[in-house]
């Protein structure tokens, strides 16, 4: 059955990480309408007999004078009000601006708020459609095209910039999540695009195959993860869109089309990372690899040692990433390789248990909590029932620590130092299947800016990636930015998808991806606003100093549209230098002439000219 949602059921059952904002409905109306009436006392001066009021004519004259005086004040006040109103009249179309009593209006039953996972972007919509079959999806797209009604494709809502959100309407393929066909011999799998990454991996593991690479988390819909150019890490491994060998796309103007590198290759390479603007990706055929166990080795290094070993780390490890801790010299190296068939997994006894590795972080939290409770700054996160901190993971503890004073540089430095110590005590090995090992706990809600830039080749790395990081760390310290950890640096080889930030014609090119963050560890609106402003200042500084110098471009799921017109024009011009914007817009005009798949972000980044 076609589910054209009026969203009367919880969106959390529709989007894995959707957050409701209907708590406003529970506000008691009586707090808005109830008033306290002060009773009028008929005898304002009980110590004076009422008969005395009539016994004195002088008192009567005085009373009349008082009455005339107050009547005069009232007339003056009324006259001033009338004069002000007619001196500054509202136009007829601005009647809603006139002052009126506060009124509380709950959201209509069919209007719900949809937000991304981090709660940084949200829209209210009445149209959120979830087809269960290809035929239902085709009907939705066809009807919307004829009515010129928006149905922006949206996935799991994990993009930090909310690239899939549209107030006018959305279509989500969470109910189209089946594995359709597996070719064990060719190691290919055909799936519906709404399938989540973890669901896909679980569905094909019995065939002995898996995905070539993974991003940090597993809850993305596969159609969404390729449309924004998501990636894992490994200097010999491409972004995830490069694993796709064919697609079935439902377009408004041409209906359902099948494209691949053999069938309409020009459109295939354009649409594979198409930002949801060329059609709704309905089915995807993926080139998989043999399922294998990996050994993850985590150890702490520093920039001097990294420089000496960087080329070896990139060339000798299937997967490798660096985690930089601002205001320290700590660089955490995480490398993953297949378990040796001859040697087996390494034999290693860690120096510290998991409990010992995190204990100093718990101690810092208790110490900081007592400090802020005793000082003028009250720790809002501690006002409610406090959970047992012994049950919290490191990332949960870090969130609670940062929440105490997230923009205090000295406090953030202490938290970063505790994180560096945590990683030092967590050095060691871990063995597991690739989908288990390659994940990463990114922490709680956060602002993110991730850029991608060329870094030479595996055989001849340019070392620009390390220069970028040195400059970034110097910038943080010089500007006293309260930058939390980690700053994550990863690598991929090139993608042939034309709109990928790692797009290149040279097969050997590698690209570095660097992500800066600021966590949103509190639900306090004022605090979140302050963190947001500080993050965009941080991001702006990196943009001015680093992006052009290193030819760095933001990840499509993390790019933010500037509000300033001049900044927006500069961004549009910059995107044109890197991507085939004219070809992309031409395809948009041909496949979606009524722009039903677009949203405000796409329109701002890629304005359509009249030439198409």
From TrEMBL:
| Start and end residues of each stretch annotated as Disordered | 16-58
Q: Which residues form a coiled coil?
A: none
Q: Which cofactor does it need?
A: FAD
Residue stretches of biased makeup (Low complexity)? 48-58
Q: Which UniProt keywords apply?
A: Oxidoreductase
Q: Where is the composition biased (Basic residues)?
A: 16-28
| Family matches, as SUPFAM superfamilies | FAD-binding/transporter-associated domain-like (SSF56176)
Any signal peptide, and if so, which residues? none
Domain (FAD-binding PCMH-type) spans 120-291
NCBIfam families attached here?
A: GLDHase
- Its recorded name reads FAD-binding PCMH-type domain-containing protein
């Amino acid at each position: 059955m076609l589910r054209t949602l009026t969203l009367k059921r919880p969106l959390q059952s529709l989007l894995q990480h959707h957050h409701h904002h209907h708590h406003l409905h529970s506000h008691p109306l009586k707090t808005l309408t109830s008033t306290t009436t002060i009773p009028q006392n008929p005898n304002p001066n009980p110590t004076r007999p009422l008969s005395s009021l009539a016994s004195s004519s002088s008192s009567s004259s005085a009373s009349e004078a008082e009455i005339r005086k107050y009547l005069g004040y009232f007339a003056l006040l009324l006259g001033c009000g009338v004069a002000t109103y007619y001196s500054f009249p509202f136009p007829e179309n601005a009647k809603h601006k006139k002052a009126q009593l506060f009124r509380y209006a709950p959201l209509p039953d069919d209007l719900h708020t949809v937000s991304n996972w981090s709660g940084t972007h949200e829209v209210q919509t009445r149209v959120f459609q979830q087809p269960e079959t290809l035929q239902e999806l085709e009907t939705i797209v066809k009807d919307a095209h004829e009515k010129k009604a928006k149905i922006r494709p949206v996935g799991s809502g994990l993009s930090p910039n909310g690239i899939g959100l549209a107030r006018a309407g959305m279509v989500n393929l969470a109910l189209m999540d089946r594995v359709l066909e597996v070719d064990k011999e060719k190691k290919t799998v055909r799936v519906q695009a709404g399938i989540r990454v973890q669901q896909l991996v679980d569905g094909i593991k019995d065939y002995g195959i898996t995905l070539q690479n993974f991003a940090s988390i597993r809850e993305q819909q596969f159609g969404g993860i390729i449309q924004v150019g998501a990636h894992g890490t490994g200097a010999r491994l491409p972004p995830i869109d490069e694993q796709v060998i064919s697609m079935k796309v439902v377009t408004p103007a041409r209906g359902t089309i099948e494209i691949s590198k053999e069938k309409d290759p020009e459109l295939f390479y354009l649409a594979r990372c198409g930002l949801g603007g060329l059609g709704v990706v309905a089915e995807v055929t993926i080139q998989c690899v043999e399922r294998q166990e990996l050994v993850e080795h985590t150890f702490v290094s520093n920039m001097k040692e990294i420089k000496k070993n960087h080329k070896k780390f990139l060339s000798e490890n299937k997967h490798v990433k660096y985690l930089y801790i601002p205001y320290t010299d700590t660089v955490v190296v995480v490398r993953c390789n297949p378990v040796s068939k001859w040697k087996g997994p390494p034999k290693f006894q860690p120096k510290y248990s998991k409990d010992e590795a995190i204990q100093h972080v718990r101690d810092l939290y208790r110490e900081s909590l007592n400090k802020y409770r005793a000082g003028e700054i009250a720790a809002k996160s501690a006002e409610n029932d406090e959970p047992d901190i012994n049950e919290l993971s490191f990332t949960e503890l870090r969130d609670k620590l940062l929440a105490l004073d997230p923009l205090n540089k000295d406090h953030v430095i202490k938290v970063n130092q505790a994180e560096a110590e945590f990683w030092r005590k967590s050095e060691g090995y871990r063995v597991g299947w690739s989908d288990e090992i390659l994940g990463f706990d990114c922490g709680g809600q956060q602002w993110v800016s991730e850029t991608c830039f060329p870094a030479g080749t595996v055989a001849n790395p340019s070392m620009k990636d390390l220069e970028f990081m040195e400059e970034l760390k110097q910038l943080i310290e010089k500007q006293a930015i309260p930058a939390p950890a980690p700053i994550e640096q990863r690598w991929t080889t090139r993608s042939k998808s034309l709109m990928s930030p790692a797009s290149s014609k040279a097969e050997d090119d590698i690209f570095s991806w660097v992500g800066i963050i600021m966590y949103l560890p509190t639900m306090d609106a004022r605090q979140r606003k302050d963190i947001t402003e500080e993050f965009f200042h941080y991001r702006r500084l990196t943009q001015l100093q680093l992006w052009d110098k290193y030819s760095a471009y933001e990840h499509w799921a993390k790019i933010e549209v500037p509000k300033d017109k001049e900044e927006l024009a500069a961004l549009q011009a910059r995107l044109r230098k890197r991507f085939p914007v004219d070809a992309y817009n031409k395809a948009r005009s041909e496949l979606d002439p009524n722009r039903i798949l677009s949203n405000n972000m796409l329109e701002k980044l890629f304005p359509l000219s009249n030439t198409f």
